[in-house]
Every structure is written in structure tokens, then in C-alpha cells.
Amino acid sequence: MVGSYSYFPGCSVHSMVLEYGRSGKAVCRSLGFELSEIPDWVCCGATPTASYDYEIMLALGKKNLAKVKAGESVVTPCSACYKNLKSAEEHLKENEAAAPRVQHLFQMICEDAGMDAIRGKVTRPLKGLKVASYYGCLLTRIDPSFDSAEDPRKMDELVTALGAEAVPFAYKMKCCGGPVVLSKQSLAVSLAGTILKAAKESGADAVVVLCPMCGMMLDLYQKKALKGRKGGAIPIVYFTQLMALAFGLKDEDVALDMNFVSTKPVIEAVAGGGR
Fold first, then answer.
1. What is the rounded distance in angstroms from the CA atom of residue 174 to the CA atom of residue 149?
2. 18 and 53 assigned to the same domain
3. Residues 240 and 128 in one domain
4. Which of 45, 158, 248, 249: disulfide with 57, CB 3.0–4.6 Å?
5. Of 209, 208, 257, 265, nearest in space to 232 by CA
6. Can you tell me the distance from the alpha carbon of 181 to that of 34, in angstroms, rounded to the nearest whole number?
7. pTM over 0.85
8. Per the structure, how many domains does the chain have?
9. What are the tens digits of pLDDT across the range 154-202?
10. Could you list the residue range(s) of the whole structural domain that residue 168 is in?
């Protein structure tokens, strides 16, 4: 057992992105991480609450952190949840109160497992698969000590450790438009379309993501985002799905059949082995 963590799934993983939650738990089990879901957790407030009332967002975060077992870290797969819980953690520390360490799931796997351990679990190298790594606009800006806030590389390192090829991708930190999709959908869809167009032009077979909101914008809204643009669709997969695939886990744990855009090109690229 590598370690035990309190798990804050966030609202999306239990509803909109079941494939992320399923593959994430399976990968953690494979690496020896034990995740215990925080009992009676409440919504972190997502993006709107922080803009509307910062104090409410902090209160929600502190309410969730107060339920964490002493000595355990908190891990969450959602970048928005990570931002809000991290803000609560910092606020508690500033006021001389004890606070558990908050990590994003991607951060926890990279830091607490490490690339050597990840390589050691690969039974089905993703040779032949070209991947564009997309972070979104939040993760590296919250804790720049984890990865470069200017030119992050950790996701490319993970992709390479899994046997795939990380293609150069200049749009890896551009906003997907998710925060304004309800109020300004045309703008949000346009932003997502620009990212998808760039990914396709990079020669990638798929885009790998680590945020439910980004996944929604690039996957669920892809048909609208690419309307009127040349070329076909491009699969959007969570980093945990790529890991589960490379680890040779069961199909139901990889959960590639649950994505909106067909992930058949991912399977075909891996099966072809770079033909």
C-alpha cells in the first residue's frame, strides 16, 4: 500500500464523467493507493461561487476539510474542486489552524507514485498513439511548485511513460470556455473549437484531459465546437483512462465506451502499434 487518502470526488465524477471516476479508482487500486470518500461531503461551490461570494466558497471548502481524518491528505480529480479546497487549506493555514494537504489526483499520482512505478505497471504500451496533453487553465496556476506554470511537462512525461507519443501542443493551458458555457455558450464553444482544431493540426490521435469541465467542453460540446470546421472528430480521454488502458485493466475500468466522442481511433492506434 503506497498510501491512504481522503477522496473528494466532486459532483461531476458521480454524474457527468463516470468514466473518469471509474478509471481513476481502478488506477489508484493498481498503484496501491487507498481512497476513502469523505463522508457527507458537499459541493465545493465550483467556479460560480468563488466569483459570487468568496467567503461562501471558503466555508464550503473548510466544511469538507473538517471531515478529513487526522493525518490524511485530500485528493480530488476535479481542477475546480482542487482550486476551491486548496484555497480553504491556505486560509486555514494563514489563520494558524491545522489543515490536511490538498492534491489533485494527477498531482498525487505523479508525486506519490512516480513515473518509475507507473512504467512498472504498464503491460500494454500505448505505442502508436499520438497524444495532445491538455491541462486547462487552473491546475498549474494553483501550485506552480508541482509543474511549470508557463510550460508544464508532467502530463507529457506521463504519456511517454505509458508508451505513447506526446505531440507538441501550444494550447495545453488555454481556457476551454467551461466557466461561461451557461451564460455565453457561443463564446465557450468557440474557445473549445480553437483548442480542438489545434490538437487535430498537431497530428494527435486524441487529447488527454484531467478536468471534468474541460472534458465536458471538448467531448460533449465537440460537435458544436467543430461545426463548420474541416476534418473529423478527435477523441477526448482522461489521463486515468490512458493509464488503465496501458496497465491492461478490465474494459469496464478503462471505460472508453462511456466517452461521448468515439474512442475507437485510440484503440486502433494502439492495436496498430505505430504502423
1. 12
2. yes
3. yes
4. 45
5. 265
6. 35
7. yes
8. 2
9. 999 999 999 999 999 999 999 999 888 888 999 999 999 999 999 999 9
10. 124-272
Residues 263 and 205 sit within 8 Å (Cβ to Cβ): no
Distance of CA 174 to the CA centre of its chain: 15
206-209 and 130-133 beta bridge pairing: parallel
Instruction: Please tell me whether residues 128 and 261 are part of one structural domain.
Output: yes
Verify that 152 and 239 share a domain, yes or no.
yes
Q: Which three cell numbers stand for residue 26?
A: 481502478
Distance CA 176, CA 138 (A): 11
Contact, 240 vs 23, CB < 8 A?
A: yes
Q: Is 187 helix (H, G, I), strand (E, B) or coil?
A: helix
Residue 25 identity: K
Task: Give per-residue pLDDT as tens, 1-14.
Answer: 468 999 999 999 98
Across the chain, where does the E strand assignment appear? 3-7, 33-37, 73-76, 102-104, 130-133, 165-166, 206-209, 236-238
Amino acid letter for position 260: F
Residues 82 and 143 in one domain: no
> Measuring CA to CA, which residue among 239, 243, 244, 187 is closest to residue 217?
187
DSSP code string of 37-88: EPTT-----HHHHHHH-HHHHHHHHHHHHTTSPTT-EEEES-HHHHHHHHHH
